[in-house]
Amino acid sequence: MTRKSRETFGSRIGMLLAMAGSAIGLGNIWRFPYMLGKNGGAAFLLLYIVMLIVICLPVMISEYLTGRRGGSNPFRTFDRLAPGSKWRWIGLIAVLASVCILSFYCVVGGWSVRYLVEACSGGLMGYQGDYAGFFGTFISNPWKPLAYTMLFLGMTGLIIVFGVRKGIERMSKIMITVLFVIIVLVVIRSLSLPGAVEGVRYMFVPDFSKVTANTCIAAMGQAFFSLSIGCGCILTYASYVHKDENIAASSAWIAFFDTAFAVIAGLAIIPAVYAIALMNGADPDVSAGPGLVFITLPGVFKSMPLGGLAAVLFFLALLLAAITSAISLMEVVVAFIIEEMRRSRLRAVLISFLLCGGIGVFCSLSFGPLDGFRLFGLSVFDFFDYITSNIMLPVGGLLLAVFAGWRLKRADYIDELTNGGTLKLPRRLALTIYYLVKFVAPLAISLIFLNCILS
Ligand code: TRP
Hints:
The chain has 455 residues and is an all-alpha fold. Helices cover 76% and strands 0% of the residues. Residues 22-23, 25-28, 101, 225-226, 228, 230-231, 233, 325, 328-329, 393 line the site of tryptophan (TRP).
């Protein structure tokens, strides 16, 4: 495919919402609140924000810039910008990392489809018994979660078949807008419960006694995961962006929206868990891990007035968020197949579906028939979750920072950041970003790894 015939985003707002759609996902609504719950609340939030500013935002700007300059999938982009070097193989690994992420992501996406269906049909609120049982029976069933996983992946593929403008951009615009409205409604419901303020306190008053080397890795991994950086996702979307976009400003906006959304999702969940626990005279428990949204929350909805409606809205939000992120992951793979293997978009989607669905089967079954099977002591699902977020993405980010900081010329970096000097970006700011990428981000990522290995 020649460069001229490549698709682009139709408008600035469409581009921003597509990128925000990629960033805002299960990472914000499902993963962030339980990470916060497991790692001491406000202390984790604070650590997360530091990681975001010092490491992730500069890396994001570099991934964006590299993608726009290269104008292609990760493999070809690195090949264009550093012809004949080994960098293109790093691009290929990024594509594989996207496959790994989508493979477990689609399983949780499938769970949210099921929960939405059950919330709408009344099956969720009408369930008698505890939700740990409901969730456990569902995910350990050999067939049901598989069917929902494939359904989720199928919906994702269907959107991508329509291409960048008509599929990705249009759906992201609609879905992200609806998502914002819904989540605000759920937050209002959650915060208006008596006793909710205790949960808010948990989120914003830090307890540093729970911070360990692992918390730092977890906060960094979460920041990478939530911003969709480190595996060529932003890079691929950036290759559809016009040359006159302000890269630094767009990245900052996306990072801001993403973080705000994570906090908002936390506010929709944690105060409600506290309020209902207090009402029932129980100890609030937000440390349920991955089960927080699927086990604790349904119980919370059941106990509160208008809970049935809140459940429908919440799981719809979860699904919308998951789909707009899944399409960005699949697009990395699809763009690679279209451009490097010269297949049509439809075929590329089918191949990606089979690839991710194939691995997804193992991730899904690891909660049921494959329960005893361990990779390095982790179930297949946890293994993919752990190695992608905590290792592949930060290493990907590290390599990207090294590429942008050391392989690209300083003049080119600044030139790309200021659109050839036409943007009124203060030179000092551009240089600060450049040095954060060149020295601070790689050093910080390495130190966090080292700290974790040594402790
Ligand atoms: N950021 C998304 C979320 O928060 C998930 C996601 C989409 C992602 N694309 C990615 C994570 C690329 C890592 C890398 O749910």
